[in-house]
Give the backbone structure.
Amino acid sequence: MKVFISWSGEVSRAVAEALREWLPCVIQAVEPWVSAHDIERGVRWGPALTRELEQTKVGIICLTPDNLEAPWILFEAGALSKTVDATLICPFLFRVENSDVEGPLAQFQATRAQKDDARELIHTINRSVGPSTLKEAALDQAFEKWWPDLEQRLGRVPLSGAAVNPPRRTEREILEEILELVRSAPRTVSYSAAALKTEGEDPRLAAIKARLLDQSKRFLSSCLEHLVGCSFEEREVVFRFAQKDSLYADLLKARDQQETLHAVCTQVLGQPVRIRVALQEA
Protein backbone atom coordinates (compact mmCIF):
# COMPACT_ATOMS: atom_id res chain seq x y z
CA MET A 1 0.00 0.00 0.00
CA LYS A 2 1.31 3.42 -0.97
CA VAL A 3 2.02 5.98 1.77
CA PHE A 4 2.80 9.45 0.38
CA ILE A 5 5.14 11.46 2.66
CA SER A 6 5.15 15.21 2.02
CA TRP A 7 7.94 17.56 3.17
CA SER A 8 9.24 21.09 2.64
CA GLY A 9 12.54 22.35 4.05
CA GLU A 10 15.61 20.49 5.29
CA VAL A 11 14.25 19.70 8.76
CA SER A 12 11.00 18.38 7.31
CA ARG A 13 12.96 16.37 4.75
CA ALA A 14 15.02 14.69 7.49
CA VAL A 15 11.79 13.72 9.28
CA ALA A 16 10.29 12.39 6.03
CA GLU A 17 13.38 10.28 5.33
CA ALA A 18 13.28 8.84 8.85
CA LEU A 19 9.61 7.86 8.42
CA ARG A 20 10.32 6.41 4.98
CA GLU A 21 12.86 3.97 6.40
CA TRP A 22 10.96 3.21 9.61
CA LEU A 23 7.39 2.54 8.46
CA PRO A 24 8.10 -0.70 6.49
CA CYS A 25 9.90 -2.09 9.54
CA VAL A 26 6.64 -1.91 11.50
CA ILE A 27 4.17 -2.66 8.68
CA GLN A 28 5.84 -4.60 5.88
CA ALA A 29 2.87 -4.11 3.52
CA VAL A 30 3.37 -0.34 3.22
CA GLU A 31 5.46 1.31 0.51
CA PRO A 32 6.41 4.85 1.56
CA TRP A 33 7.07 7.41 -1.21
CA VAL A 34 9.21 10.53 -0.69
CA SER A 35 10.04 12.74 -3.67
CA ALA A 36 13.63 13.32 -2.49
CA HIS A 37 14.36 9.61 -3.05
CA ASP A 38 11.73 8.15 -5.29
CA ILE A 39 11.72 10.33 -8.44
CA GLU A 40 14.53 9.17 -10.72
CA ARG A 41 16.91 11.76 -12.11
CA GLY A 42 15.76 13.02 -15.51
CA VAL A 43 12.10 12.12 -14.91
CA ARG A 44 9.59 15.01 -15.02
CA TRP A 45 8.37 15.43 -11.48
CA GLY A 46 4.86 16.58 -12.43
CA PRO A 47 3.59 13.32 -14.00
CA ALA A 48 5.50 11.25 -11.42
CA LEU A 49 3.88 13.18 -8.58
CA THR A 50 0.42 12.89 -10.10
CA ARG A 51 0.85 9.13 -10.56
CA GLU A 52 1.87 8.66 -6.93
CA LEU A 53 -1.03 10.78 -5.67
CA GLU A 54 -3.49 8.65 -7.63
CA GLN A 55 -2.14 5.46 -6.03
CA THR A 56 -1.96 6.80 -2.48
CA LYS A 57 -4.22 5.70 0.36
CA VAL A 58 -2.43 7.50 3.19
CA GLY A 59 -0.64 10.84 3.13
CA ILE A 60 1.72 11.94 5.92
CA ILE A 61 2.59 15.66 5.95
CA CYS A 62 5.76 16.45 7.91
CA LEU A 63 5.21 19.78 9.65
CA THR A 64 7.99 21.70 11.40
CA PRO A 65 8.27 25.30 12.69
CA ASP A 66 9.82 26.24 9.32
CA ASN A 67 7.06 25.07 6.98
CA LEU A 68 3.64 25.52 8.58
CA GLU A 69 2.59 27.84 5.73
CA ALA A 70 4.95 26.62 3.00
CA PRO A 71 3.15 26.69 -0.39
CA TRP A 72 4.41 23.22 -1.34
CA ILE A 73 3.06 21.67 1.87
CA LEU A 74 -0.34 23.32 1.30
CA PHE A 75 -0.35 22.29 -2.36
CA GLU A 76 0.36 18.61 -1.68
CA ALA A 77 -2.21 18.52 1.14
CA GLY A 78 -4.81 19.97 -1.21
CA ALA A 79 -3.82 17.58 -3.99
CA LEU A 80 -4.09 14.59 -1.65
CA SER A 81 -7.54 15.59 -0.42
CA LYS A 82 -8.79 16.19 -3.98
CA THR A 83 -7.19 13.30 -5.87
CA VAL A 84 -8.64 10.41 -3.88
CA ASP A 85 -11.75 10.83 -1.73
CA ALA A 86 -10.75 7.96 0.59
CA THR A 87 -7.22 9.22 1.23
CA LEU A 88 -6.26 9.60 4.89
CA ILE A 89 -4.25 12.78 5.50
CA CYS A 90 -2.15 12.75 8.66
CA PRO A 91 -0.05 15.81 9.61
CA PHE A 92 3.05 14.68 11.55
CA LEU A 93 4.05 17.41 14.01
CA PHE A 94 7.78 17.66 14.71
CA ARG A 95 8.60 20.31 17.37
CA VAL A 96 5.17 21.76 16.63
CA GLU A 97 2.00 21.75 18.75
CA ASN A 98 -1.57 21.27 17.55
CA SER A 99 -2.32 24.89 18.40
CA ASP A 100 0.38 26.02 15.93
CA VAL A 101 -1.43 24.46 12.96
CA GLU A 102 -3.86 26.82 11.20
CA GLY A 103 -5.71 27.10 7.90
CA PRO A 104 -6.58 24.04 5.78
CA LEU A 105 -4.20 21.71 7.64
CA ALA A 106 -6.05 22.27 10.94
CA GLN A 107 -9.00 20.17 9.72
CA PHE A 108 -6.95 16.95 9.82
CA GLN A 109 -6.19 14.84 12.90
CA ALA A 110 -2.53 15.49 13.67
CA THR A 111 0.13 13.18 15.10
CA ARG A 112 2.81 14.55 17.40
CA ALA A 113 6.29 13.03 17.19
CA GLN A 114 5.71 11.18 20.45
CA LYS A 115 5.34 7.49 21.22
CA ASP A 116 1.62 7.34 22.02
CA ASP A 117 0.64 9.48 19.03
CA ALA A 118 2.93 7.52 16.71
CA ARG A 119 1.30 4.28 17.89
CA GLU A 120 -2.13 5.66 16.97
CA LEU A 121 -0.81 6.67 13.55
CA ILE A 122 0.53 3.16 12.95
CA HIS A 123 -2.83 1.63 13.85
CA THR A 124 -4.58 4.07 11.49
CA ILE A 125 -2.27 3.10 8.64
CA ASN A 126 -2.66 -0.60 9.42
CA ARG A 127 -6.45 -0.37 9.13
CA SER A 128 -6.02 0.93 5.58
CA VAL A 129 -3.77 -1.89 4.40
CA GLY A 130 -6.63 -4.25 3.48
CA PRO A 131 -6.00 -8.01 3.31
CA SER A 132 -2.46 -7.56 4.71
CA THR A 133 -3.68 -5.90 7.93
CA LEU A 134 -1.69 -7.05 10.96
CA LYS A 135 -3.39 -8.22 14.14
CA GLU A 136 -3.23 -5.63 16.90
CA ALA A 137 -0.99 -7.73 19.16
CA ALA A 138 1.54 -8.29 16.37
CA LEU A 139 1.41 -4.64 15.39
CA ASP A 140 2.02 -3.45 18.95
CA GLN A 141 4.92 -5.85 19.29
CA ALA A 142 6.51 -4.56 16.07
CA PHE A 143 5.93 -0.97 17.15
CA GLU A 144 7.60 -1.51 20.54
CA LYS A 145 10.60 -3.08 18.81
CA TRP A 146 11.11 -0.34 16.22
CA TRP A 147 9.97 2.85 18.02
CA PRO A 148 13.39 3.44 19.71
CA ASP A 149 14.99 3.55 16.23
CA LEU A 150 12.65 6.31 15.06
CA GLU A 151 12.97 8.19 18.35
CA GLN A 152 16.77 8.20 18.08
CA ARG A 153 16.68 9.20 14.42
CA LEU A 154 14.35 12.12 15.11
CA GLY A 155 16.49 13.15 18.06
CA ARG A 156 19.42 13.68 15.70
CA VAL A 157 17.49 16.05 13.40
CA PRO A 158 19.06 19.53 13.65
CA LEU A 159 17.17 22.41 15.21
CA SER A 160 14.80 24.47 13.08
CA GLY A 161 15.90 27.87 11.84
CA ALA A 162 12.44 29.41 12.10
CA ALA A 163 13.29 31.36 15.25
CA VAL A 164 16.00 33.37 13.49
CA ASN A 165 14.00 34.33 10.39
CA PRO A 166 13.80 38.12 9.94
CA PRO A 167 10.40 39.78 10.57
CA ARG A 168 8.14 40.38 7.61
CA ARG A 169 5.41 42.89 6.86
CA THR A 170 1.94 41.77 7.85
CA GLU A 171 -0.50 40.60 5.19
CA ARG A 172 -2.71 43.62 6.03
CA GLU A 173 0.16 46.06 5.32
CA ILE A 174 0.87 44.38 1.98
CA LEU A 175 -2.82 44.40 1.03
CA GLU A 176 -3.22 48.11 1.75
CA GLU A 177 -0.22 49.00 -0.40
CA ILE A 178 -1.33 46.82 -3.31
CA LEU A 179 -4.91 48.10 -3.33
CA GLU A 180 -3.53 51.63 -3.75
CA LEU A 181 -1.73 50.46 -6.90
CA VAL A 182 -4.89 48.89 -8.34
CA ARG A 183 -6.46 52.30 -8.90
CA SER A 184 -3.86 53.21 -11.53
CA ALA A 185 -4.05 49.92 -13.48
CA PRO A 186 -5.24 50.00 -17.13
CA ARG A 187 -8.74 48.69 -17.87
CA THR A 188 -7.58 45.65 -19.87
CA VAL A 189 -4.19 43.96 -19.70
CA SER A 190 -2.60 40.63 -20.50
CA TYR A 191 0.85 39.60 -19.26
CA SER A 192 3.28 36.70 -19.24
CA ALA A 193 5.63 35.39 -16.56
CA ALA A 194 8.61 36.62 -18.57
CA ALA A 195 7.22 40.17 -18.70
CA LEU A 196 6.74 40.19 -14.93
CA LYS A 197 10.47 39.88 -14.39
CA THR A 198 11.03 43.35 -15.80
CA GLU A 199 7.70 45.16 -15.57
CA GLY A 200 6.54 43.96 -12.16
CA GLU A 201 3.45 42.01 -11.20
CA ASP A 202 0.09 43.37 -12.35
CA PRO A 203 -1.36 45.11 -9.28
CA ARG A 204 -4.79 43.52 -9.71
CA LEU A 205 -3.38 40.00 -9.58
CA ALA A 206 -1.27 41.03 -6.60
CA ALA A 207 -4.39 42.39 -4.92
CA ILE A 208 -6.28 39.14 -5.56
CA LYS A 209 -3.48 37.10 -3.97
CA ALA A 210 -3.25 39.49 -1.05
CA ARG A 211 -7.02 39.37 -0.49
CA LEU A 212 -6.86 35.56 -0.50
CA LEU A 213 -4.14 35.72 2.14
CA ASP A 214 -6.20 38.19 4.13
CA GLN A 215 -9.03 35.64 4.14
CA SER A 216 -6.64 32.81 5.18
CA LYS A 217 -6.88 31.22 1.71
CA ARG A 218 -3.13 30.56 1.62
CA PHE A 219 -3.45 27.41 -0.49
CA LEU A 220 -5.27 29.26 -3.28
CA SER A 221 -2.84 32.15 -3.18
CA SER A 222 0.14 29.79 -3.40
CA CYS A 223 -1.38 28.12 -6.49
CA LEU A 224 -1.52 31.52 -8.22
CA GLU A 225 2.23 31.89 -7.69
CA HIS A 226 2.67 29.28 -10.44
CA LEU A 227 0.78 31.16 -13.17
CA VAL A 228 2.52 31.68 -16.49
CA GLY A 229 -0.06 34.20 -17.64
CA CYS A 230 -3.24 36.02 -16.67
CA SER A 231 -5.61 38.27 -18.58
CA PHE A 232 -8.13 40.76 -17.23
CA GLU A 233 -10.96 41.44 -19.67
CA GLU A 234 -14.03 43.53 -18.93
CA ARG A 235 -16.09 40.60 -17.66
CA GLU A 236 -13.62 37.70 -17.45
CA VAL A 237 -10.39 36.78 -15.66
CA VAL A 238 -8.31 33.99 -17.20
CA PHE A 239 -5.63 32.21 -15.15
CA ARG A 240 -3.13 30.27 -17.31
CA PHE A 241 -0.75 27.51 -16.20
CA ALA A 242 2.01 25.66 -18.01
CA GLN A 243 1.27 22.09 -19.12
CA LYS A 244 3.68 20.74 -16.48
CA ASP A 245 1.65 22.55 -13.79
CA SER A 246 -1.71 21.10 -14.84
CA LEU A 247 -2.25 19.81 -11.29
CA TYR A 248 -2.50 23.41 -10.05
CA ALA A 249 -5.03 24.15 -12.79
CA ASP A 250 -7.12 21.11 -11.84
CA LEU A 251 -7.17 22.20 -8.20
CA LEU A 252 -8.41 25.68 -9.17
CA LYS A 253 -11.20 24.18 -11.29
CA ALA A 254 -12.82 22.60 -8.23
CA ARG A 255 -16.19 24.12 -7.45
CA ASP A 256 -15.30 25.48 -3.99
CA GLN A 257 -12.09 27.06 -5.30
CA GLN A 258 -13.97 28.62 -8.22
CA GLU A 259 -16.53 30.14 -5.86
CA THR A 260 -13.77 31.65 -3.71
CA LEU A 261 -11.91 33.05 -6.71
CA HIS A 262 -15.12 34.53 -8.13
CA ALA A 263 -15.93 36.27 -4.85
CA VAL A 264 -12.42 37.65 -4.38
CA CYS A 265 -12.05 38.83 -7.98
CA THR A 266 -15.42 40.55 -7.77
CA GLN A 267 -14.34 42.35 -4.59
CA VAL A 268 -10.99 43.46 -6.01
CA LEU A 269 -12.22 44.47 -9.49
CA GLY A 270 -15.46 46.04 -8.31
CA GLN A 271 -17.72 44.13 -10.72
CA PRO A 272 -18.90 40.54 -11.27
CA VAL A 273 -16.56 38.55 -13.52
CA ARG A 274 -16.31 35.06 -14.95
CA ILE A 275 -13.37 32.91 -13.87
CA ARG A 276 -11.60 30.67 -16.35
CA VAL A 277 -8.61 28.40 -15.69
CA ALA A 278 -6.65 27.26 -18.75
CA LEU A 279 -3.42 25.56 -19.76
CA GLN A 280 -0.88 27.29 -21.95
CA GLU A 281 -0.85 25.92 -25.48
CA ALA A 282 2.12 23.66 -26.20
